[in-house]
C-alpha cells in the first residue's frame, strides 16, 4: 500500500460522494500528518481502479486484496480490500471501518477511501511495496529488525494510549506488519480490533464464544478466559520480538511446538553477568554474527516480560519504547519522538 505521505487524497476523474474526516487527536507520538480526507467511492470506481479485480495481491480468511491504479495526477498505486459477503462479515467490515477512520500514525497503514454500496464492503489503502514481515524477516539486517521492533511498539502505544477511544488490535502477527520501500513497518488488518470499553476488558458472551487470533501469537490468558485487554497485544509483540531475534517461526505445525515453549527456558537469567553465550546461541544464525549482543539481550529481556503469565508484570507499549530508547543507543532516531529509519 503506496508509501508517500498523503495529506489530502484527491481524485481528478471521479465524482465520489461524501468526504469523511477521521479523528485528528494529536500528541508527540500521535503520528497525525496534517488533515486527512477519506473518500467514499462508488462500486463502479472500485471496479475501475482494480481493472475488474484482475490482480490479487493478498488473501485473508474473509477478504481478498487487489492492486489498484488510483486516478490522479501521479497515478499512485493502492490496495483494495474486499470483504466477503455475509451478515456477520458485514458487521466486521463496519466495525473495522469505524476504527480505521480514527487512525493516523506513520506505522499504521493509511486508509484512503471505502465503498459500502453493496453487501461486499471495499476499503482502499495506500500500497506498501515490500510485502510483510512474515515474508521478509530472514532477509532483514539486525539494525532493521531492532527498528521494526521499536516502530511496532510505537504503533501499539498509539492504539492503546493516544487514540480518543483506546483500541486493542487483537491479531498482531508478522503477516499483519507490512513493510514500505525503506522497510519501515505499517500495522494493518483491524478486523479483530476492539475499541473503547471493550478494549480494556470484554467478558465472553457465552461459553462457546469463538476466539480470534493466530496460533503462536494469541495470549494464553485470553484463550483461557476470553477477557480481552491491551496486554493481549503486548503478548503478541513479545512473540514477534522473539522471532526478530531468533529467526524462528512462532508456531511449527509439523512439530506442533510453539516458539514460546522452545525459548522460554533459555530466557531465564539472560540479564545476569556471564550469559553472553546463552544470548548469542538464541540469535538467528542467518545474521552470520552481524548483530549487537547487548541489543539482542535487551530485546530478549523485553520479550520475556511481554510473555509473562501475570498481566500486571507485562510492560505497557510506552514502557517498552522507553526501554528501547534507553538501552539500544545505536538506533538511528532523528529525535526523541521520531521514527527510526529501518532501511534493509
From TrEMBL:
It holds the Pfam family Pkinase. Residues 51-328 form the Protein kinase domain. PROSITE patterns: PROTEIN_KINASE_DOM, PROTEIN_KINASE_ST. GO terms for molecular function: ATP binding; protein kinase activity. Keywords: ATP-binding, Nucleotide-binding. One of its GO terms (cellular component) is plasma membrane. This is Receptor-like protein kinase. It comes from Hibiscus syriacus.
Amino acid at each position: 500500500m503506496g508509501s508517500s505521505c498523503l495529506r489530502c487524497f484527491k481524485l481528478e476523474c471521479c465524482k465520489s460522494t461524501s468526504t469523511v474526516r477521521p479523528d485528528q487527536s494529536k500528541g508527540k507520538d500521535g503520528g497525525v500528518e496534517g488533515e486527512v480526507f477519506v473518500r467514499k467511492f462508488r462500486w463502479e470506481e472500485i471496479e475501475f481502479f482494480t481493472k475488474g479485480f484482475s490482480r490479487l495481491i493478498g488473501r485473508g480468511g474473509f477478504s481478498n486484496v487487489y492492486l489498484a491504479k488510483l486516478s490522479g495526477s501521479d497515478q499512485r498505486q493502492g490496495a483494495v480490500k474486499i470483504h466477503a459477503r455475509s451478515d456477520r462479515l458485514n458487521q466486521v467490515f463496519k466495525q473495522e471501518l469505524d476504527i480505521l477512520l480514527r487512525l493516523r500514525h506513520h506505522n499504521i497503514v493509511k486508509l484512503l477511501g471505502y465503498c459500502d454500496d453493496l453487501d461486499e464492503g471495499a476499503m482502499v489503502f495506500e500500497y506498501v511495496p515490500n510485502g510483510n514481515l512474515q515474508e521478509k524477516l530472514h532477509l532483514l539486517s539486525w539494525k532493521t529488525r531492532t527498528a521494526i521492533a521499536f516502530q511496532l511498539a510505537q504503533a501499539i502505544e498509539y492504539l492503546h494510549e493516544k487514540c480518543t477511544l483506546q483500541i486493542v488490535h487483537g491479531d498482531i502477527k508478522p503477516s499483519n506488519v507490512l513493510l514500505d520501500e525503506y522497510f519501515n513497518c505499517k500495522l494493518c488488518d483491524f478486523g479483530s480490533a476492539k475499541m473503547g470499553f471493550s478494549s480494556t476488558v470484554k467478558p465472553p458472551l457465552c461459553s462457546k464464544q469463538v476466539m480470534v487470533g493466530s496460533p503462536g501469537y494469541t495470549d494464553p490468558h485470553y484463550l483461557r478466559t476470553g477477557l480481552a485487554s491491551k496486554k493481549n497485544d503486548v503478548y503478541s509483540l513479545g512473540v514477534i520480538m522473539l522471532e526478530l531475534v531468533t529467526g524462528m517461526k512462532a508456531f511449527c505445525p509439523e512439530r506442533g511446538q510453539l516458539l514460546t515453549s522452545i525459548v522460554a527456558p533459555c530466557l531465564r537469567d539472560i540479564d545476569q553477568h556471564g550469559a553472553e553465550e546463552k544470548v548469542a546461541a538464541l540469535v538467528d544464525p542467518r545474521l552470520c554474527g552481524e548483530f549487537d549482543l547487548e541489543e539482542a539481550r535487551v530485546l530478549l529481556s523485553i520479550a520475556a516480560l511481554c510473555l509473562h503469565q501475570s498481566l500486571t508484570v507485562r510492560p505497557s507499549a510506552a514502557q517498552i519504547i522507553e526501554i528501547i530508547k534507553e538501552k539500544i543507543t545505536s538506533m538511528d532516531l532523528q529525535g526523541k519522538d521520531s521514527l527510526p529509519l529501518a532501511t534493509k
